[in-house]
Every structure is written in C-alpha cells, then in structure tokens.
Write a structure and sequence with these properties.
Length: about 800
C-alpha cells in the first residue's frame, strides 16, 4: 500500500472476495526482502541505469534504444499534470476563497503585457499577495498561447532546472533527459504563458532562460532581494505594494464575519501602520480576532458538556480552549499582532503545534499531510495542516507548503527550535523508511525533495562514527533518496543528496558508502559533460573500492572512467574502450604486471593528470603496464609463428626456406590457431609419422597462449584427426610424431608430454642442440615460462598451463630481423 496515496482495500478486486488466510501463523513469517528497483534513463546519447545497490551504470545508448522525438501533451494532459502539481487541499472544512482587494489595476496591466508577448516580473515582499495575484492572472491567460499556461516553481531551482521542468510540463517524455542542444531545440518550439513564482535567480541566468524560449511569455514572481533582470532582457517590472487602511479593515471583517468594533478598528489602524499594509499580516490578525471570539464565547465549556460527542471522530474543534475562561479577553498587543505566530500557535491543537516544531526543524518545510500521523503519532494529525493554513502560518510553494514569510523567525524566538535536532532525526528516520518503500514512486519522492534534503542537511552535522554493522541515519536517508531523485529526473536534488551523503559517510567512517556517493557524483558529472569532475570523482571511488576489495564496484567505476577517457579523447590502454572491461580487470588483482622498459611513451603519457588525481597514478601506471605487456606478448607470438613458417628445409621447391608470403595474417583465418602463418610441410614416413611444428593454441581463459604439436599432412587431401587431448593427430598409426631435429635432454630437465592419436605419451625424448636458441620445457599441468631469443620483443612471463615455444634456427632469426 502506498503510504501517501493508499488505494482501495481490494487493490483492483472490488468485485471478488478476498480468499481466506491459510493460517494465523503466516503473518508472523519473515517476508522476502524487496528487490532493488533499477530504472533506465536516456540522458542525451547515454544510457543510464540507476542501480541503488552497486552504483549506476552508464554507457553509450544503442541506436535501437534511442527514444523517438517527444510529442507535446494535449490540453487535457496538461490540465491533469497541472492538477497533480498543485499543493494538496488541507483536510477539514473548506476555506472560503478570499477575493483579491485593490489589485484590479495590476491584474489588467499584467494581462495586457502578456497578450503582447512581453515577459513581466512581479516584485513584492513576502506576504504581499503575489502568489494569489499570479493565480488570477494565469486564469485570465488560458487562451492566449497555443500551449496554454504552464505553472512552475522557481524556489531553489536553477535556470537549467526550470528549462527541464518546462520541457516535461509540455512534452510527454518519460525517462528521458535531453542534452543541452536538444533541450534548447525542443523548448524553443514551446509557445506558452509560463507562470514562474518564487524565482531565485536573475541577471545572466534569467537572460539564458529567456533566450532559450523565444516563443514563451514569462510571468515571474520574485522578492526584492532577487537579482534584477539585465537591461538587455526587456523584461517589464511591476512592483506590488501593500494595501491601504480600508483594505486591511475589510480583510479583518471578512475573517471574523462581522463589522469591527471601534476598539478593533483603531487596533487595525495601528497594525496597518506597522505592517505597511501587507495582506498576510491582516490575515493573521483576522485569525487572532477569530480565536478571541471563540474564547469569549466559551466554546471550551460547551465542549465539556458533551456537545461534540456525536461529531465524527475525524472532526475536531478548530482550537483547544481552556475550560476556565476570563470574563473578557483583551485584544492582542501591537507587538503580538506584529509577530503573531507564537500567540496563534499557542491556541491551536497539539498536533498543529507539533507540526510547527517539525517545520522549524526542517528549515521551514512543512511535511506532507500524509506524513503527519506517522511523525506525530496521532491518526488525525493530518487535520493540522488545515488549522495552520486558516491562520496564515503556512503558504503554498509549488506542490507543497512552507512556513509563511516571517513565521520561522518568530517561532524560533519563541522556543520552537529547542528540540530541533531530535525532531529532524525523527523526520529523517521516517523519510528513510518511506523513500525506500516499494510502493512509493520516484516521482512522489521527488515531490518531497525539499523536505528530505532539509532533513539530511539538519542531521549531517550530528553524524558521528558508526558502530560496526550500523549505518548512520543521514547516510541511510541519502542512500535511499538519491536513486529516487535520479529516477524521478530531479537531478539538482540528486546532486545535493549525493554531496550530503558523501559528507555524512566521511564523518561516520563508512568507506563503502563514501565510495558509492563518489561513484554517483562521477556518473552525474559525466551525464552533464563535466569530464574533469567526473574523472576525479570516479578515481576517488575506484581507489576506495580497491581498498575494500570491492571488485564489482571497481569494474563499474572503471567502465565509467573508460567512457570519460573516450569522451575526452584520451588513450587509456589496450582495448580499454567504453562498454568493455580493461585488460587489468579480466585478471586477478594480485597478478604481477609484465616487464615494461622505462621511458615507454604509454607509461609517461598521462603522468601529470594522474599525479593531480591523487591515487590515479598507481592505477594508471598499472593499466599502461598491462597494455604494453599485452603488445609485447602479441609481438612475440607473431614473430614465433612467422619464424616457424620459414624454418623448413624440406620441400624447398614448394616452400623454400626464407620465403615469407605477403601479408600472411590475411591469407587465412585465425580460427585454426595458426594466426595466418603457412604451416610447415614435409614427406610422410613409412611408420605414419610426419614432421611437426609447434604453434600457439587459442588463448585460454586467462588470456595467454599455449603450444601444441600439430602434425601437418605433407600431401593435399590428408586430413588430420583430433586426438583425445584436443590436439590434431595423424589419420592412423600407433607411432607418435617426432620432431624434425635431434635434441639432447639434460639431466634433471622435465620431459615434455606429446599428444598422440591413441592418447598415450611418447617414449622418445627430444634433445636440445647447442644451436637451438630456444628451449621450452612443458611440464604437464604446470606453469611454464617461455624464453624467446628472437627479435620479436622483450621476454614476457606466462602464468598459465601452457607457454609459447619457438624452435627456430639462427638463419631464420636473421631473416625475421
């Protein structure tokens, strides 16, 4: 069941009865752990797989998986998306919609400017009624633009965030985040009236937003402390001031539902002078007068005699009143009216006051009403939001509520922040459970991003080293929320959660989690085209995971790092391309690197960059060592094969010694293990034996080459048969083939084992002549080093069950050189 939006009890089975339970003890069984939810996103030309366990995987998006060009939403779809993005209606009795006073002139002016295609910035202090005026103007402009009206929130959003929000509000493009060029091309085709409230940026950032959307007219709401638009932007500026005295008195009379007394009218005049006519102050003052009337009427005494006993459990009196009332309740003082939040809160329910304490602990963010019963421990605590909204203590911001302007400071002065650390920790524990619940979608978590981020930021300074086997609350919340933000395409919140998680894991000493956060930061930077930052974050993650022997995470990080190198045009080593494991991760981490001569250009190519990246020098040097060693091994194999093809002194008329075909590697395929070299041919002896040439076999699982004695038929049409050991033998006969040269076995040297068609080892012992520069003993099943004295490259040790051997004459060596 969704903890936020619970569905029907039957879960789509309203017409069928639920089957009876098998036994009562089934409820006590331990349920299977929920599977990790992975999400695949297309970010530009990259395919991002959000993996909350080992870290996200990133690779070039295959052409077959590239999404089609997104299409625009219909008017009905836009209206549905707008309703989903509006703040929830507080539970309880419906609040009367207050009409806007003294704003008709500003309203008509804004509509005229927008109808001409002009962008306007409406500036006013907090509490001046700016958001209410924007809503009215948006209703007047529904038919002005082909794409209608788009409402967005600029609170803690950058210009890039607003562009992506505008794109997803108009286009139907799930799981897709276009790259900047594609994004600008798509939003450039949008023709809409964009209502952007609570903007946090101006100047050049606002110019960038306006330039990217030439067909849109913006209605921007901002406070005076936000930077102004540049002179070149041609944005009209409209300043919203306070109400006059008559307007303030009218708001009070509407709030209490009666005409003010002379004493109350004089009190309202003093309040108007002190508040400069801000409508929010009069809404709060009207709530004070309404509470005063309830106190004077003795609603608490009526409740004591049971008037509210028959009321439904979900409906409560609007406020908790003391039983003993004074005969006359005086008007609030001017100081209390100027800062009314503590007095208003003292007359609200206990759930409302507890909600205010959580809001203060979260920096002004009010938890969603569905979270309040779990946070407060009261099943009817969701009604607290309606109480706070009717008193003017909270105001809508985007799809949620925040404390109204000035309320946070007033409550902190009244002592509501004394237990802020405990409240923030309780909220973080709850959000860590909720964000990881299988039924909560990433979009739902992204809608609560500001509250979750506020909880993380509040408890990170409290983080201490964790005990063994435990995870700090800040790390758990960041670890749970970050993948949801990524999958929900709220990437600014994703970055903030990752940075807070990295700091919390560092303070807690949780190295494994710290490596995860650095890996995700590197992936995020790679998606944004910040290659230097991506390289630094990924190398830090690889270093931490290498210290922990986390091979799976190391492989994921190296793949992402290879993609960074590919995008920056760097050479990282042999076959280290995007989507392919570098050579060093295909072997055990303990395998020693091959010998590489000093001064090799592959070793010294990236020394400055690797040195600057901290631990990257050791890993980069090892990667280059493996690359050079692989090249040396390949050169040795090719040189040995070519040499073997030239050493035959028999059948000179068909294949004379010293003759090398042009481009022998292209003369035939390499599936037969010959690497394209022409095999040696010789006459067939009477006993069925024939000359053999030692050649390398196919690479084994560890990537090295072995040797096998493959008898080659001397006449066309003779087909060798495969022996039981997997090598090729003669067509028949019980005598094993012998080498063409005579060798002498030194005392104590191992005897090589030859594969015969009958599967029995040979009894003949090859001898080593003084003129043979290469000696390769091959013990069965052991580790065989090979020593090559040819000009094919430096000596390379082999760590496998077979080795490369060469039996070449000095003349052949000279021919190769």
């Amino acid at each position: 069941m969704d903890p936020i939006n619970p569905g029907p009890e039957e879960h789509g089975q309203a017409h069928s009865r639920r089957p009876p339970r098998e036994s009562l003890t089934s409820d006590f069984g331990q349920s299977a752990p929920a599977l990790a939810r992975t999400t695949r996103l297309v970010a530009g030309d990259l395919l991002l797989t959000v993996n909350p366990v080992d870290g996200s995987e990133i690779e070039p998006c295959p052409p077959a998986q590239r999404p089609e060009r997104p299409h625009k939403r219909t008017a009905t779809e836009r209206a549905e998306a707008e309703r989903a993005g509006r703040p929830p209606v507080p539970p309880g009795p419906a609040q009367p919609a207050l009409s806007l006073l003294e704003r008709q002139d500003e309203r008509e002016r804004l509509v005229r400017l927008l109808a001409r295609g002009r962008s306007v910035r409406l500036t006013g202090p907090g509490g001046c009624g700016r958001t209410a005026l924007l809503d009215l103007v948006a209703e007047d402009c529904l038919d002005l633009a082909p794409d209608g009206v788009v409402r967005l929130s600029g609170f803690r959003r950058t210009a890039a965030d607003v562009l992506h929000d505008l794109f997803h509000a108009v286009y139907d493009a799930p799981h897709q985040r276009p790259e900047p060029d594609e994004l600008h091309a798509l939003v450039g085709e949008i023709g809409a009236v964009v209502v952007l409230d609570d903007i946090d940026f101006g100047g050049a950032a606002l110019d960038e937003l306006l330039d990217a959307t030439p067909e849109c007219a913006f209605l921007i709401g901002a406070t005076p402390d936000v930077p102004a638009p540049s002179a070149e932007s041609a944005v009209e500026e409209v300043f919203l001031s306070g109400l006059d005295r008559a307007g303030g008195v009218e708001i009070l009379e509407r709030a209490v539902g009666r005409v003010l007394t002379e004493e109350e009218a004089n009190w309202a005049g003093d309040l108007w002078f002190e508040s400069e006519g801000l409508p929010l102050r009069f809404v709060q003052a009207g709530a004070l007068l309404r509470q005063r009337d309830l106190l004077r009427a003795g609603a608490g005494v009526v409740d004591e005699y049971g008037v509210f006993e028959d009321v439904r459990p979900g409906v409560r009196p609007p406020m908790e009143l003391p039983v003993e009332l004074e005969e006359d309740v005086p008007l609030p003082s001017l100081g209390e009216a100027a800062a009314p939040a503590p007095l208003l809160a003292s007359r609200l329910s206990a759930s409302a006051r507890a909600t205010l304490r959580f809001a203060v602990a979260l920096g002004g963010e009010v938890p969603h009403q569905a979270h309040l019963p779990a946070l407060i421990g009261d099943t009817h605590a969701d009604a607290a939001l309606g109480e706070l909204a009717s008193c003017g203590l909270v105001s809508p911001v985007g799809s949620r509520y925040r404390l109204a302007a000035g309320v946070l400071t007033q409550l902190e002065a009244a002592g509501y922040a004394d237990d802020a650390q405990e409240q923030a920790l309780a909220a973080a524990e709850h959000y860590a459970w909720w964000a990881g619940h299988p039924s909560v979608t990433p979009e739902r978590v992204s809608a609560e991003a500001d509250a979750l981020l506020a909880a993380i930021a509040a408890i990170v300074p409290q983080t201490v080293p964790s005990a063994e086997g435990e995870t700090s609350c800040a790390v758990r919340l960041a670890r749970t929320a970050a993948p949801a933000f990524a999958a929900g395409l709220h990437w600014s919140a994703w970055e903030r959660a990752l940075r807070s998680g990295a700091e919390a894991s560092r303070l807690a000493g949780e190295v494994h989690e710290q490596a995860y956060f650095h890996h995700e930061l590197g992936v995020l930077a790679l998606c944004g085209g910040q290659l230097d930052r991506a390289r630094a974050e990924l190398e830090a993650s690889i270093g931490l995971r290498g210290a922990l022997a986390d091979k799976r995470g190391t492989v994921s990080g190296r793949r992402a790092l290879a993609l960074v190198a590919d995008r920056s045009g760097e050479v990282v080593g042999f076959a280290a391309t995007a989507g392919e494991e570098p050579p060093e991760i295909r072997h055990e981490e303990s395998a020693p690197p091959p010998y590489v001569p000093l001064g090799d250009p592959l070793v010294t190519q990236r020394l400055p960059a690797a040195t600057a990246s901290g631990g990257g020098l050791r890993r980069l040097a090892r990667r280059n060592l493996v690359a050079v060693g692989s090249g040396a091994l390949l050169a040795a194999v090719l040189g040995t094969v070519v040499t073997l093809g030239m050493t035959s002194n028999e059948n000179a008329d068909k294949n004379p010694a010293g003759k090398v075909d042009i481009n022998p590697s292209a003369s035939q395929g390499t599936d037969d293990g010959t690497l394209g070299a022409d095999p040696k041919k010789g006459p067939t002896s009477g006993s069925g034996s024939m000359p053999t040439a030692t050649r390398p076999t196919d690479p084994g699982p560890d990537g090295t080459y072995g040797t096998t004695d493959d008898p080659t038929p001397s006449e066309p049409g003779t087909t060798p048969s495969a022996g039981p050991s997997g090598t090729k033998g003669t067509g028949g006969g019980g005598t094993s083939p012998t080498p063409s040269k005579s060798h002498t076995t030194k005392p104590g040297s191992p005897t090589p084992t030859k594969s015969t068609p009958t599967g029995t080892p040979t009894s003949s012992t090859p001898t080593s002549s003084p003129t043979d520069p290469t000696t390769t003993p091959t013990p069965t099943g052991g580790t065989t080093p090979s020593t090559t004295d040819s000009a094919s490259g430096p000596t390379t040790p082999q760590t496998s069950g077979s080795a490369v051997s060469s039996q070449s004459a000095p003349a052949s060596t000279e021919a190769v050189m």
